[in-house]
Each structure stands twice: as structure tokens, then as C-alpha cells.
Design goal:
The chain has 7 helices and no strands. By secondary structure, the chain is mostly helical. It is globular. The relative contact order is 0.21.
Length: 197
């Protein structure tokens, strides 16, 4: 049981790490179009992301897929940028109901990319056979899911406060937060070492 908490905590820290805020940025972009009444949908999207993330780690642990770390590190901020731009173009539109399949598919794909981004580190902290890494991987996934729920809850609470106390409407809040995410992520893309090759 102590091992469970070790890998659960690593999962928590992976999402909540102040120096690796890309995961939090993605969750902000994913959550801002929704309100508390949409909690089931947001939870579903977060879980789909975790499934993609975990599946990518499994593929990596068993050496089925290997991707250059530099490419993945470039693609991660691109996924955040796409999510934020999607919000800009759909903010305030009633097509949110119909777009859940699209958003879920994209979220799964983005989970795969983010998982591949963490795969080298995960393999490094877990020496031994691939089969020995399966249980810790799922313990790690539970930590990721818990941390993501905390971030989503914080975004939903912020959304509620801004809309209730400051009389922001949902569309404006989505636009402002998505623009904020874009403003943070664009320099990450511009400064990526991939351009220097």
C-alpha cells in the first residue's frame, strides 16, 4: 500500500507541478466553456484525457511506441493552443451539445500526446520489466485523475465567482480565459528548440 501513495503522489505532482504548468493550461482551456451544471461532461472529458495519457504510457513502457521527446514537447503546447482557439470560435454558441464527440476525440488524442511527453521520465523512475510497471502506472493514473479534478474544480469555482460577483457572462469569461491561455502558450511554441534545427 505505501507504493500506491508513492505513485499516486507522483501523478498528483505531474499535473500540479508549478514548473510544468502546460497540463494545467490544457485543463483550463478544456474546462472554461463549462459550468457546474456540466460537471458530468467535464468529468467525462478529464477521464478520457487520463485514459489517453495512460494508454500512451503503456505503449511506451512496452516499447510499442517511441517518439522523439523534442517532437512531443513541441506538440503539447500546440494541443493547448488548438483547444483555446476552439473555445474562441465556439464561445457563446449553442452547439456545445453537438460538439462533445469532437471535443472527446480531440481530448483523447491530446491525452496520448501528453502521455508520450511524460513517458521517458516515467520509464526512468521505474526500472525493471514492463509488466512490473503496469500496477504503478495505474496508481500514477489515479493521481493524475485526482489532480485534474482539483484543477477543474478550481476553474469551475473561479468561473462561478467571476460570473456571479463580477457579472461576467459565460461567453466573455471563456474568451478572456482562452485568450490568457493563448498568451501563455504562444511564447512556449516560439521558444521551442525545434525551430533551432
Amino acid at each position: 500500500m505505501p507504493d500506491f501513495w508513492i505513485y499516486f503522489k507522483i501523478g498528483l505532482q505531474h499535473v500540479l507541478d508549478i514548473n510544468g504548468y502546460d497540463h494545467v493550461l490544457f485543463l483550463i482551456a478544456l474546462t472554461v466553456p463549462y459550468a457546474f451544471k456540466d460537471w458530468k461532461r467535464v468529468l467525462l472529458l478529464v477521464t478520457i484525457f487520463t485514459i489517453g495519457h495512460t494508454f500512451a504510457l503503456l505503449l511506451s513502457v512496452f516499447n510499442i511506441v517511441t517518439v522523439k521527446a523534442s517532437l512531443v514537447e513541441f506538440l503539447i503546447p500546440i494541443t493547448i493552443l488548438i483547444t483555446a482557439f476552439f473555445n474562441l470560435f465556439t464561445a457563446g454558441k449553442s452547439s456545445k451539445q453537438e460538439s462533445i464527440t469532437f471535443v472527446a476525440t480531440v481530448t483523447l488524442f491530446f491525452g496520448l500526446i501528453h502521455g508520450l511527453g511524460f513517458s521517458n521520465y516515467f520509464k526512468a523512475i521505474l526500472p525493471g520489466n514492463p509488466t512490473d510497471k503496469v500496477v504503478p502506472l495505474f496508481e500514477f493514473a489515479l493521481g493524475i485523475e485526482a489532480a485534474q479534478i482539483l484543477v477543474v474544480l478550481a476553474v469551475l469555482v473561479l468561473s462561478f465567482i467571476v460570473q456571479t460577483l463580477f457579472r461576467f457572462n459565460k461567453r466573455d469569461f471563456t474568451l478572456v480565459m482562452s485568450a490568457f491561455v493563448i498568451g501563455v502558450v504562444v511564447p512556449m511554441i516560439i521558444e521551442n528548440p525545434i525551430w533551432k534545427r
